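Is NAP placement plausible here? Inputs below.
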Amino acid sequence: MARRALITGITGQDGSYLAEDLLDQGYDVWGLVRGQANPRVSRVRKLLQDVQLVRGDLLDQGSLISAVERVQPDEVYNLGAISFVPMSWEQAELTAEVTGMGVLRMLEAIRVCSGITASRSSGSGQIRFYQASSSEMFGQVRETPQNERTPFHPRSPYGVAKAYGHFLTQNYRESYGMFAVSGILFNHESPRRGAEFVTRKVTLGVARIKLGLASELRLGNLEARRDWGYAGDYVKAMRLMLHAETPEDYVIGTGHTQSVRELVAAAFEAAGLDWEQYVVGDQALHRPAEVDLLCADPKKARVQLGWEPTVAFEELVAMMVESDLRLLSAGIDLEQDSSWP
Ligand code: NAP
Ligand code: GDD
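Reply from A.M.:
I modeled the complex. Tokens:
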């Protein structure tokens, strides 16, 4: 019988790529969707017609128990979160509830539905659980590159909430013998990236300027450095982690780092433009506390999972610029139609 996966965050970037990957692998894929009329569900229905949907919300324990009971998954991928770092300062409590406590609720739903208690630990046939941890947990980094043993020093309410979810996942593994793992993923991008994140903001900005739809692009801190990879590669690592013999946490990234300035230069160059003529610095876009430098050491994933990134930084940026040029040239208005390319 086909393995069955339940994905929270199915309407997000990673949910879409993971669903495609799991469908390719012959899985029955279910996606958790929230809200009475969530406009982003239509893009799941358009692109991922073989995904079945179940209603639920990471803020609502009962709904998660019902979803797990209905779907009877072999694997749960918890990708749902408030994931935009600046929003976590504006709505810190909501971020803690969704991004942090949401992990507790999902783990509890699995524990309760599997009949696991302190004296009756998880056995074979157990539900395997993946938690979307983040390199934001490293924050003000203690060493470079960052690996699975690097201490955390989160710099945003989002990073703090992710650290809670990370430690809780470890704790359920240790307390109940659950197959529960965290992928500590560094930034990963794609043509389906949300428009609020810097890569997509830049590639959409470049496309608008190239097509005469805008004359400038306002940005915050150009000096921050990130390890940027391709989302399509990273979701494969999630599946590999749940197929490993033992439940362990892994760092997933490229091992290279670029500044926002280098990202901007590469994106404008991909469209034949000189960035310095268009980019305007905006102090209001700087963060209360910044993560200055992220760079992964993905050796453990390479050796133990056989995972490697396949898309280099310049290729990724060019892919996103081309996609946004195509989208905007076709007259698609992102405010009206957020379908995935
Ligand atoms: P994304 O595009 O922002 O998607 C976030 C998803 O969370 C959406 O599907 C959203 O659904 C869902 N969600 C929000 N609130 C929810 C709630 N109360 N209950 C259930 N679902 C809820 O994020 P992404 O880039 O795909 O990232 C996936 C996960 O990986 C996130 O947990 C993120 O924090 C983490 N992560 C991402 C990166 C990266 O670089 N992309 C790196 C490390 C970790 P709605 O449509 O209902 O809003
Ligand atoms: N979003 C944004 N907008 N970022 C800007 C801008 C701007 O106008 N100008 C400069 N930046 C800088 C930010 O200050 C940050 O240093 C960097 O660009 C990257 O910002 P984002 O793309 O918003 O991503 P992030 O690194 O904060 O968080 C992403 O990666 C994390 C993993 O490290 C998100 O996907 C998180 O959910 C994820 O956990």
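Short version: The mean pLDDT is 96.
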